[in-house]
Amino acid sequence: MEILIIVVILALLISVWGLGSLFISAKENILRHTTWHTQKKQDMDHKLQALKEQQALYLEELKRLAEER
């Protein structure tokens, strides 16, 4: 009877340890994924800003060319 209790307690401890490591791993994956999305958004924001600046330059050049005519 005592052996059965010890086996059950050990099984519970192993299960709790396994679930704990599973949740920690999931949390790390979520953080890694969130970080990736944040970095990707920052990259896209920089590219968008560069395109807006380039568009402004083109518009200025078009205005200048239109005024010369």
Description of the structure:
There is one protein chain. This protein is mostly helical and 69 residues long. The protein has a domain at 41-69. The chain has 1 helix and no strands.
Q: Low-confidence segments, ≥5 residues, pLDDT <50? A: none
Q: What is the radius of gyration computed over CA atoms, rounded to a whole number of angstroms?
A: 30 Å
Order of helices and strands: H
Provide the structure class: mainly alpha
Measured distance between first and last alpha carbons: 102 Å
Individual helix count: 1
Main beta sheet, described? none
Q: Level of helix content?
A: over 70%
Mean pLDDT reading: 95
Global outline:
rod-shaped
Beta-strand segment tally: 0
Q: Could you tell me the strand content as a percent range? A: under 5%
Task: Break the fold down into its secondary structure elements and pairings.
Layout: H1 2-68
Comma- or semicolon-separated keywords:
69 residues; single chain; mainly alpha; 1 helix
In short:
The chain is an all-alpha fold. It has a domain at 41-69. It has 1 helix and no strands.
